[in-house]
Batch of 4 targets.
Target 1
Amino acid sequence: MSPNPFEHPSAVIDQVRAAAADRRPLRTVGGDTKAFYGHPTTGTPLVMSSWSGIVSFEPTELVVTVRAGTPLAELEAVLADKGQCFPFEPPHFGAGGTVGGMVAAGLAGPARACVGSVRDFVLGAQFINGRGELLTFGGQVMKNVAGYDVSRVMAGSLGTLGVLTELSLKVLPVAPAEATLVFELGQADALEQLHRWGGQPLPINASCWVRDDTAPGAPELLFVRLRGAVAAVEAACTRMTQEAGGRRMDNAQAGPDWTACRNQTLPFFTPPAQDLCLCLWRLSLPQTAPVLALPYAQLVEWQGAQRWLWAPASAATELRAAAAAVNGHATLFRAGADGAPGVPRFSRQTPAIETITQRLRQQFDPAGIFNPGRT
């Protein structure tokens, strides 16, 4: 990886200070692969893609420190060369995604429910606040006396608290063995089976339930991925197929399918041709939530905790009420061709969370210049 010629992000600091003085909005841009996520925001682009490079990486310590503009694919290739990975499987949504964008978006792939979120792997963060100050947080550097783990708060903030410049991240070894099992089960039976397996010592790493084809009568399939020690994976394959039928897939076929699920390139994620104004919704629910009585085709991940569906923006009230009824929430993840004007992308925060959010923004971005309105 080529070293970045800059030794300090002073140019970015100058831009932030000038914008704060003028109260001029800034729109942070890495690879711009997740611009669809959250409310559209305007402002002068603050491009961070040139601030790239691995600062330090010691494979035996399972920690990498990297500049925020580093291409995610490039860093993952370096990790893979050492037999390591980000186990939460961050989606790419395009070739230009950056590490800073990965953390700012806080999105994770199929293994999220079993291995943890992006936030769980952030050890430290360096960022520029709304006053143009370069701050560093993390257990190895300084204790945050405010009581918040600020480095992890940055995960999922969508760039509204500051401009990420450097991140220290935990990585893990690639699992020694992997297998994918597929079962022909309806959604209710699939969820019940997943909950049953969840109470057993099985190396389940990811799950995906989906109707394999949109045609009437097409099979409804549950895919379950196992990862772990060779003996544990082999024993689980035998036990699970004996208990629920099903078959084992060839890893050469299953691997690309899981990558497609992670990056939302499966056929399910293609907007229905008959109505390009349909929106992709994400329902975040407790794993034990039952099948929701909604008239929309779904794809279910995270052992029931994440459910995707295509529905019009006008269904926002219906979807959010259904999610709230089981203590979950609904997000308008991708708007349709009309942009879904006037429809909130995220469910309303609880009063307690809203208070904390406002205090953090006042502390780190008092002029409100970073990605205003994004969340």
Note: The radius of gyration is 21 Å.
Target 2
Amino acid sequence: MSLSFDPNTIRLPVGHFIGGELIPAEGGIEMRRPSDGKSYTACPVAGVDVVDRTVESAKVALKTSNWGGVRPRERTRALQAWADLIEAEAETLARIEALCSTRPVGQLVAGDIAITAEQIRFFAEFADKEGSELVPTDDANLGMIMSEPYGVVGAITPWNFPVSMAGWKLGPALAAGNAVVLKPSEMTPFSTVYIAQLAVKAGLPVGLINVVLGDGPTTGTALTGHPDIAKISFTGSSRAGSAIMENVARTGVKPMTLELGGKSPQIVFADADLDRAAMAIAGSVTFNAGQACVAGTRLIVEKRVADRLTASILERMKAVRPGPTWNEATQYSPIISERQRARIDSIVKAAVEAGAECLTGGNVMDSPGYFYEPTLIANVDQANPAIIEEIFGPVLTVQTFETEEEALALASHPTYGLASGLFTTDLSRTIRFARKLEAGTVWVNRYSRSRDHILPTGGYKRSGIGKDLGRDSYLANRRTKSVLISL
């Protein structure tokens, strides 16, 4: 059965999901399909009253279900059943997401959605394997570090990978015994509403997962500043992360996990497998049209192999063909909005005006929807806008080096430190660079995550604080208290 579909036939769950019910809401933010630019519905905007109601629903659900206090294996089984249902409904879920987002339907079923189910199962298994511990004291005392859930966690997810980002937030928070109020991006909200509906069908307590739709200034501000939200988890831009920190500081104090922007380097030495490097590097900036915080958008290559590597990358970048996200064969995504595409184009034009050379691309594509040409820019210095700015599009810069010291200096960015890539067959060099690169993730001879969900992700500098995925993410959804008993 083909996954391709007619976008005009898809029914969307338009509304907030509160207390186990879809709450229809009219009006709001006009939404346009990235693949053809056509308006198709509006995203409701939850105000303070709706957020208050939603947080109260989560509090009641947490208390009546005793979700944080039940036998941990019960949480594991419930989350595993939810993951099973997500997989069973993968085609329906993929069509909802492909209609609204930049994710091609052909990549969703076996990719994003299957991975999301895996991640939920991964976190579910922590529920009965991580907990309190006894600690060494003298014989006259008994020391314990008790672990417990926070309560109601507030989460905000971005538009670029809607389902999998929701899984990043919901999986560890629920496994750790919390309830969640989640605000998806107003540009891609409906697949998140659908997986919340599936959670209730799978048997999770009603009201444990709540989804409020809306924008950042109104809904996001109300959620992050709410006094009954005990912890915040956010993935998005560094600017939005700073605004959340400011809002939380103004309204109180609470822990936060922030996975923010990036401008990640990919360093290639002459001893690397250049074909493998070219495939990984071109793929990192054409996958989802470069709309990923970890996209490796700065190529830093040893000078004596720069021409050969650049030619190979150019060949791969020129080979991509755009297509609507509802076509199963599509591999190259549109940009999320006309506004974002215009921003990408303006930075590219500014880079050229500052002296850069555009080797390929650099223009809006002549096709329906918001497509932008894969772009490779050379002759850039560290002050060039294409080096400084997180473009969040299919734009790669290239710089050359002759020594390791030069490579490290070029790799360092004044603002970001989210991810990095290193291509070399020298093990000693690999260890040296892994220690010195200022990034939360270092990929070697690859540039992508694997399905090893135990590896955490998070950044240095303004790329964020805390970690998603891995054991770190589960533990970040638990708080600890010290108990000392005199015997």
Note: The mean pLDDT is 96.
Target 3
Amino acid sequence: RDWIYVEDHNRAVWQIVNDGKTGEKYNIGGENEWQNIKLLHKVIELTSAEVGKSAAEVEKTIVHVKDRPGHDARYAIDCTKIKKELGWERKMTFEQGLSMTVKWYLTHPDWVNHILSGEYKNWISRNYSDR
């Protein structure tokens, strides 16, 4: 997978809206491919360090599942066009962005609990249902 920090992605979308050519398509990529399992280990490492737990203990809880049939071995994004035509560049390294993301989730438990409760689905239903 190609991973990118959310603020870099949002800046790219905004730049496309403002500077992109109508009808053109621009791929937004972080030029940063990680296998999901390696990303999981990194998230565990960062989270464990923040909360003072042993990463090794948390990693023991990983449950491996079979790949689904037809699972792609690689997802890659070529973002050359947005870089060349619009001058866009990501500003955040993946490691910096991931660290900030982990810290955000750890400092916003109310938001996390709201999502885990499923209440957001009711909001979507109230605001986007066909009445």
Note: The radius of gyration is 18 Å.
Target 4
Amino acid sequence: MAQVVDVKLRLAGPQDSERMLAWRNLPEIRRWMYTDHVISQAEHERWFAGALANQTRRYWIIELDGTPVGLANLADIDVGQRRAAWAYYLADPSVRGRGVGAFVEYFVIEHVFGELNLGKLWCEVLVENEAVWKMHEAFGFQREALFREHVWKDGVPSDVVGLGLLARDWAAVREASRERLKTRGLPV
């Protein structure tokens, strides 16, 4: 029997500002972001001041057994066009491989298509981050684009995979995805 894993997402708040800055500046997180410079306190404060108030964004702190371990977010929420973009990261390497990312994926997809009633969720992933884009595909995302030399990392161009999930795609794989998580002891 799978061990039950206590994973939750809670809306980020002002108390999370310093944690988010520290996470974002970790080399293993910057490695997969579009921008990879170290973010200064002043730059972070300017961004954070508007981030949580922006109605086209949502930020959640990912918690495992009550401990913050990462961040998930929606961006470019467009109710008129019925779509949103998303991303997440696990800042604590010790939680990787335990199904936390899969739970986050399921939670965000359910939120987008259930609560927000949008028709499409999309994301962009560095082509080198194969584990992440393959996980998205396992949840029904389809590759829609390959953006060649889209991002420069350490002075070298990197390709980006564009992935999209339609509400009808999710309907076709939802139950199988849910069952996969349940067999891993995740709270779905």
Note: The longest helix spans residues 167-183.
